[in-house]
Amino acid sequence: AQRVTQPEKLLSVFKGAPVELKCNYSYSGSPELFWYVQYSRQRLQLLLRHISRESIKGFTADLNKGETSFHLKKPFAQEEDSAMYYCALPGSARQLTFGSGTQLTVLP
Amino acid sequence: GAGVSQSPSNKVTEKGKDVELRCDPISGHTALYWYRQSLGQGLEFLIYFQGNSAPDKSGLPSDRFSAERTGGSVSTLTIQRTQQEDSAVYLCASSVTGLYNEQFFGPGTRLTVL
Question: Where residue A91 falls among pLDDT bands split at 50, 70, 90?
Fold first, then answer.
């Protein structure tokens, strides 16, 4: 069965420091992966997806099939990056299977 | 344009009562999803609609949960004989058909069962 694991429930970094939010998955086949973000009192929204190979708000994520990982990275964290981040994988019923989420706090 | 809307935004009910939660997807989105977000459980998939049909209901946690979608648009999630463990935020999302398309989420309905 497919699974998404985010090992860190909480992550704190100082402003300007690099940040990496970990995501590991189990999936048979070639996966498509997403990062969704939920800022305080806002809706859950798409941050980026693997298929687009894009950088959004300075964040990037590289799919590593050997390590079955899709870690989210940003070289210089900003206070406005503080949010809940979810890694997700599409399922057989076209739903998203989400990880348990990582609450990122960027300290001033 | 308008995003996904959900009503009510908050619902407090007594154990044993039935509740209905409503979702209005983005116009033209044929796919609609219900998820549940609870402390310690993360985001849990409940059910998916393609048009008016739900090909997979296996995510519904018990037979007290049911959902329907009419006219390829509005969807209602019904929980019968609510229990305290049903307390959670219920999220609806919609997307253009396609496995890799972005899902647009509503603001959620916070359900509290006393």
Answer: confident
